[in-house]
C-alpha cells in the first residue's frame, strides 16, 4: 500500500509545477508596476522560487533585494535576501560565502523574531555540516528547523527539513529512518505541491530501495522521478537521476536503456556545469561499454571519470578545509568578544564599588574612624581582588599564546599533510586506477591479448608516470621529515646532467629533439645536496621534453657569477604566460593545473613546485622566462663548489 502511495505522490508533481510556473509569471508581471516595498517582497519571492531552476537569475534578484532592503532598513526582507544568497552560494560550492551569508541571515531573523526565516537558514547551516560529513550534527540542525517551521505553519520548510533529515540518515545507512522521514515529507507535500521537493523525496526513496537491493522498485521510482524532473526543467534532478537509473538498468540487465539515459545525463550535466553528476554518468557508461565488450570506449569513459573525480575530490577537500577554518575563526572571534564583555562587566563592578565608597565617606564623617578601619579592610580585599584579576588576565594571556603556538603548529602539520595528499591524489591515484582497470579486465578474461596489446602503450605511459611521481614523492617526503638534514657536498653538475639526459634519450628520439650546448659545459663543480639536485635536474629535463615541439631542440647554457653557478635549459614549445609563472614562483606551495604536453603527455603541476622547494633548501633560486607558443627557459642558480671559490 505504501508503494502505491509513493507512485501517486510522484504523479502529482506536474500539477504543482504548473501552479509554480504560473506564480512566477504573475510575479514577473507585477515587478515593473510595484512600489519599492512591494518590489522588495516580489524580488525575494522570485529568487526563492527560481533558485533551483534558474540559478543565475535568482542570484541577480537576491542581490538586488539585499541592496533594496538595506536602503529601506527592512531587516525582515534583508534576512530573506541573505538566506537566498547563502543557499545559491552553497549550490555553487562556495561554502565559505554560504556560511557567512547564512550566519548574517540567522542573526537578522532571530533579532527580528522571524522564526520562519530562522528555520530556513537552519536548513542552510545544516547543509554546510553535511558538506563536512558531520551527518549526525546536520540532523540536529534540520530537526530543529522542522520544529520551528512546524510551529509557524511553514509547510515548505517543514518538507525541506524532513527531506534533509532523510538524506543524512541515508548517508549513515540508517535506511528505515531515512524512509520514515522522506515518507512524512511526501505526505506533507501532497498539499504543498512543491515539484522540486517531491522529486527530491522520491529520489531518496529510490536510493533506499537501491540500498536494499530492491532493484525493480528502485527502477520504477527513478523512472517516474526522472520523467517529472525533465518535464519541470529541473536540471539537477535530471542529471542526478540519470546515473542512478543508468546503474539500476545495468544491474537489471537492460544495457541499451542504460546507454540512452546515461548519454542524456552527460549532455545535461555538461550544459549546466554539474561536475559531480557528469563524472558519475561517465563512470556507469564505462561499465556499459565493459559489459558490451567495447573495452576501448570503456577505457575512454573510465579515464574521463577518473580525471573529473580526482579534480572534484581535490576541490572538495580544499573547500571543506576552507569552510572548517572559517567556522573555527568565527568561533574564535565570538570567544574573544565574550572575554571583552566579561572584562567590561568586572570594570563596571569596580567603578560602582568605588562610587559607594566615596558616597559613604562624604556622608558619614561622624563615623570617620570606623569608616577608615572598614576602608582599610576593604582596600585589602580590593587589592586581593585586583591581584586575582591580574593573575587571571595573565593566565588568559598565556593560554592565548599557547593556543597561537599550537594553532601555528597545526597549520604547518595540515600544510604538510595537504601537500602529501595532493601529490598522491594528482600523480598516483589516476594512473594506478587505470592500470588496475586494465589488469582486472585481463585477469577476468574480458580483455583479449590483441586488445591488451593495443592498450599496452597506455599502460606503459601510466606506469612511467607513477614511477616518476613516486620518486618525486619519496624525495619530497624525506625532505619534510623531522630531523632531515641536507647532505651538501662538492659534485660535478655536468656529470649529473649527462646521466639524466641518458635516461630521457628514448623520449628525445620519440620527438626527434636535439641537445645543443650554448656555452662550455664541462666539469662544472657545485656545492649542494646531490640527491635533491638530481630531482631538480630530472624534473626540469622532463618538462623540457614534454613541452618541446617535435623536431626542435633543447639548449643548455651555464654562467659563473661570483660564487654562484647558473644552469639554464631552453625549450621551444608551448611556453607559459605571466600568470602561470607567478603562481609557480610564489613563496607558497601551490598546486596548479598542469597542461598537456605537445603529444598530450599528462602532468600534475607538482614537478616545478618540488624544484623550487629543493633549490631554495640548497641556498639557491629558480627563475623562469617564457613566451606563449615560443618556448620556456628555466634557470637554476646554486652555490659553486667551495674548492672553486677558495681558488
From TrEMBL:
Pfam families: HATPase_c, TPR_8. The keyword Zinc-finger does not apply. TPR repeats lie at residues 119-152. Its EC number is 2.7.13.3. GO terms for cellular component: plasma membrane. Residues 1-19 form the signal peptide. One of its GO terms (molecular function) is phosphorelay sensor kinase activity. InterPro entries: BphY/WalK/GraS-like (IPR050351), HATPase_C_sf (IPR036890), HATPase_dom (IPR003594), His_kinase_dom (IPR005467), HisK_dim/P_sf (IPR036097), Sig_transdc_His_kin-like_C (IPR004358), TPR-like_helical_dom_sf (IPR011990), TPR_rpt (IPR019734). The chain crosses the membrane at residues 357-377. One of its GO terms (biological process) is cellular response to phosphate starvation. Gene3D superfamilies: 1.10.287.130, Histidine kinase-like ATPase, C-terminal domain, Tetratricopeptide repeat domain. Keywords: Kinase, Membrane, Phosphoprotein, Signal, TPR repeat, Transferase, Transmembrane, Transmembrane helix, Two-component regulatory system. Residues 423-642 form the Histidine kinase domain. It comes from the Bacteria. It is an enzyme of class 2 (transferase). It catalyses: ATP + protein L-histidine = ADP + protein N-phospho-L-histidine. This is histidine kinase. It comes from Algoriphagus locisalis.
Amino acid at each position: 500500500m505504501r508503494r502505491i502511495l509513493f507512485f501517486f505522490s510522484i504523479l502529482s508533481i506536474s500539477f504543482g509545477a504548473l501552479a509554480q510556473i504560473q506564480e512566477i509569471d504573475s510575479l514577473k508581471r507585477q515587478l515593473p508596476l510595484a512600489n519599492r516595498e512591494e518590489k522588495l517582497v516580489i524580488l525575494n519571492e522570485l529568487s526563492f522560487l527560481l533558485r533551483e531552476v534558474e540559478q543565475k537569475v535568482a542570484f541577480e534578484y537576491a542581490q538586488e533585494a539585499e541592496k533594496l532592503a538595506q536602503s529601506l532598513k527592512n531587516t525582515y526582507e534583508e534576512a530573506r535576501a541573505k538566506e537566498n544568497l547563502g543557499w545559491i552560494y552553497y549550490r555553487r560550492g562556495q561554502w565559505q560565502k554560504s556560511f557567512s551569508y547564512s550566519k548574517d541571515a540567522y542573526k537578522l531573523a532571530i533579532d527580528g523574531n522571524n522564526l520562519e526565516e530562522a528555520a530556513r537558514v537552519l536548513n542552510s547551516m545544516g547543509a554546510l555540516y553535511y558538506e563536512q560529513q558531520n551527518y549526525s550534527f546536520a540532523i540536529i540542525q534540520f530537526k530543529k528547523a522542522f520544529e520551528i517551521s512546524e510551529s509557524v505553519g511553514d509547510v515548505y520548510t517543514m518538507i525541506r527539513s524532513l527531506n534533509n533529515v532523510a538524506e543524512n540518515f541515508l548517508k549513515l545507512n540508517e535506511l528505515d529512518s531515512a524512509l520514515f522521514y522522506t515518507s512524512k515529507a511526501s505526505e506533507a507535500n501532497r498539499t504543498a505541491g512543491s515539484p522540486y521537493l517531491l522529486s527530491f523525496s522520491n529520489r531518496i526513496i529510490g536510493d533506499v530501495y537501491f540500498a536494499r537491493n530492491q532493484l525493480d522498485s528502485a527502477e520504477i521510482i527513478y523512472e517516474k522521478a526522472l520523467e517529472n524532473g525533465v518535464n519541470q526543467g529541473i536540471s539537477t534532478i535530471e542529471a542526478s537521476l540519470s546515473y542512478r537509473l543508468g546503474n539500476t538498468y545495468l544491474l537489471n540487465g537492460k544495457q541499451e536503456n542504460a546507454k540512452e539515459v546515461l548519454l542524456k545525463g552527460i549532455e545535461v550535466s555538461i550544459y549546466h556545469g554539474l561536475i559531480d553528476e557528469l563524472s558519475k554518468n561517465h563512470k556507469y557508461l564505462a561499465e556499459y561499454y565493459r559489459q558490451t565488450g567495447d573495452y576501448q570506449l570503456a577505457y575512454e569513459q573510465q579515464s574521463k571519470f577518473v580525471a573529473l573525480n580526482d579534480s572534484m575530490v581535490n576541490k572538495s577537500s580544499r573547500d571543506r578545509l576552507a569552510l572548517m577554518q572559517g567556522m573555527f575563526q568565527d568561533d574564535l572571534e565570538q570567544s574573544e568578544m565574550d572575554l571583552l564583555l566579561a572584562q567590561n562587566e568586572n570594570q563596571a563592578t569596580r567603578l560602582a564599588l568605588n562610587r559607594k565608597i566615596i558616597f559613604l565617606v562624604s556622608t558619614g564623617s561622624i563615623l570617620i574612624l570606623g569608616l577608615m578601619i572598614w576602608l582599610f579592610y576593604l582596600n585589602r580585599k580590593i587589592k586581593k581582588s585586583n591581584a586575582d584579576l591580574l593573575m587571571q588576565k595573565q593566565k588568559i594571556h598565556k593560554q592565548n599564546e599557547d593556543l597561537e603556538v599550537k594553532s601555528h603548529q597545526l597549520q604547518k602539520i595540515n600544510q604538510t599533510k595537504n601537500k602529501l595528499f595532493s601529490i598522491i591524489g594528482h600523480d598516483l591515484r589516476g594512473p594506478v586506477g587505470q592500470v588496475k582497470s586494465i589488469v582486472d579486465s585481463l585477469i577476468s578474461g574480458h580483455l583479449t591479448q590483441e586488445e591488451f596489446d593495443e592498450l599496452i602503450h597506455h599502460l606503459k605511459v601510466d606506469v612511467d608516470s607513477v614511477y616518476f611521481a613516486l620518486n618525486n614523492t619519496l624525495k619530497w617526503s624525506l625532505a619534510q621529515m623531522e630531523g632531515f638534514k641536507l647532505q651538501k657536498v662538492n659534485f660535478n653538475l655536468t656529470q649529473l646532467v649527462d646521466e639524466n639526459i641518458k635516461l630521457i634519450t628514448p623520449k628525445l628520439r620519440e620527438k626527434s629533439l636535439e641537445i645543443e650546448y650554448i656555452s662550455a659545459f664541462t666539469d662544472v663543480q657545485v656545492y649542494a645536496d646531490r640527491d635533491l639536485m638530481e630531482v631538480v635536474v630530472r624534473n626540469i629535463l622532463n618538462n623540457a621534453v614534454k613541452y618541446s615541439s617535435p623536431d626542435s631542440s633543447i639548449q643548455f647554457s651555464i654562467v659563473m657569477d661570483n660564487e654562484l653557478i647558473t644552469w639554464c635549459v631552453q625549450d621551444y614549445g608551448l611556453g607559459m604566460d605571466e600568470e602561470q609563472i607567478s603562481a609557480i614562483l610564489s613563496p607558497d606551495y601551490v598546486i596548479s593545473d598542469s597542461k598537456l604536453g605537445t603529444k598530450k603527455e599528462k602532468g600534475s603541476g607538482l614537478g616545478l613546485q618540488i624544484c623550487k622547494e629543493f633549490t631554495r633548501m640548497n641556498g639557491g633560486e629558480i627563475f623562469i622566462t617564457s613566451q606563449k607558443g615560443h618556448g620556456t627557459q628555466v634557470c637554476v642558480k646554486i652555490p659553486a663548489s667551495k674548492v672553486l671559490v677558495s681558488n
